[in-house]
Amino acid sequence: MGKATGLLKELSGKIGPLQFQQTKSGKVAVYVAPEVPETPLRTKAQGELRMAWGNLGAVYTQFHKTLKKSHENLPAGTSDYNAFIKENVRMTCVYLKKSELENGGCVLAPYKISNGKLQGIECEMNGEGVLVTDIALGDLVITEDTTVADFSVALETMNEDWEDGDQLTFFYGEQKVDSQGVPRAKIRGWKVKLDVTDETLLWTVVSELGFSSVGGFLGMGVSIENGAAAWVHSREDEQKNLTVSSQRLTVDSSVLESYMGQAAFDASVQSYGGITSRKAFLHPDEETNGARNGWVNPSGNGGGSGSQSGGGTTGSGSTDSGNNGGSGGNGNSGGNGGNPSGEPSGTVAAPQLSGETLFTGSTQVTMTGPDGATIYYTTDGSTPTAESTTYSEPITLTATTTVKAIAIKDGVSSEVTSRTFTKSGGGGMDQN
Q: Among 109, 145, 170, 190, which is 20 to 30 Å from 388 by CA?
């Protein structure tokens, strides 16, 4: 450290490596500022959310504003885009690298695209790979001569929850990978308003792609391959209030799996500069001995990051409180050091859910929690409580399902852990 003279006596602050500081006596002390590595301040929990945002924005953009009013009763100041992000950011995590997003990358995923009170439209893949809904058509066989009136009569006669003036919208997305290896998607939509007096030919206003008869039910005209689809029911009352059905995209794509899970997350976050976390130098651990300057190795022991000491697992799951499949102690990068559970004293670590997040046929979900804690879970999208189903053995899922769980110990409840397990090539629509 030295004293400044001349014009330097008027300085305060930092110039290059030199730090100038005014003292109480009016003199200026000069010293070399310590170097701080230019490392991005991004915890694991923050990284998982930020990496998932990119693809969500890319998919939403592909809908070209057709999702306006797709969510009922939004709070003032909340847009449909905000609702879309909130519904999906912790449920189905898809990770693209920075360069892929900058080049228009987009991966179709089983995102929830609408949320409302109307009964949801369920769909599943038949033996020929064709996506079929639960909308009954009776004896109607849709052909090029079928009119909107014919279609309307069939829906309103065979299905109690449909009435004249309702709208049925079909979205279809195509997935491909370009010559540069960038995933790309294109989403199109068609809609028809039910009117038993409208003699317009049905296929002149909508596409047979999503308006075909399959064994007495409404379905797609061809098999779905490397794509995604969804039908949405909407209704407007006399006061212009819109109600919709809660729907999730059904995806059958060989591209999706490669952009989910730990490997995809690691590649994505590294493309943005990686994940770091500050660590207390006074914290007793295996690397305490020796001199340290500035930043401590974030991958060390005792608190660590992510699953090292927080007991978390990574992947495409998430928790309602901000963890994404567990990130080392309830979203706090580095957990709590000496506490093996990664949780502060007096709290209970959230349970961890494991299983294939993208599966065919069925998958088993295993839940683990702190010693002495009881795990309660739901599979209908509701928030679990002590009155929910008690976990005792792995559960088997055969359709796309969101599993939510809590751990309770000595009357203290953990945060909610939530993970969506997606059935590839079809599965139940979320009707929350």
A: 109
Contact 337, 330 (CB under 8 A): no
Q: How many CB atoms lie within 10 A of CB 234?
A: 19
Residue showing tokens 């340290």: 292
| Strand duo 28-32 + 18-22: pairing | antiparallel
Q: Which amino acid is at 54?
A: G
Q: Which residues contact 261 (CB under 8 A, 6 or more apart)?
A: 315, 316, 357
Maximum CA extent, the chain: 97
Of the candidates 430, 405, 431, the one whose C-alpha atom is nearest the C-alpha of residue 416 is: 405
- The CA distance from 39 to 34, in Å, is 15
Q: How far apart are the first and last CA of the chain?
A: 65
Residue in 257, 193, 188 with CA at minimum distance from that of residue 229: 188
Provide the whole-model pTM.
0.59
pLDDT single digits (tens) 370-428? 888 899 999 998 999 988 999 989 999 998 899 999 999 888 888 888 888 887 654 33
Burial label for 158, CB within 10 Å (0-12, 13-18, 19+), is middle
Span 201-216, pLDDT tens digits: 999 999 999 999 999 9
DSSP state of 156: H
Q: Is the dihedral of CA 46, 51, 52, 58 positive or negative?
A: positive
Query: Residues near 426 by Cβ (< 8 Å), separated by ≥ 6?
Result: 123, 124, 125, 131, 250, 252
| Cβ neighbours, 10 Å, residue 199 | 9
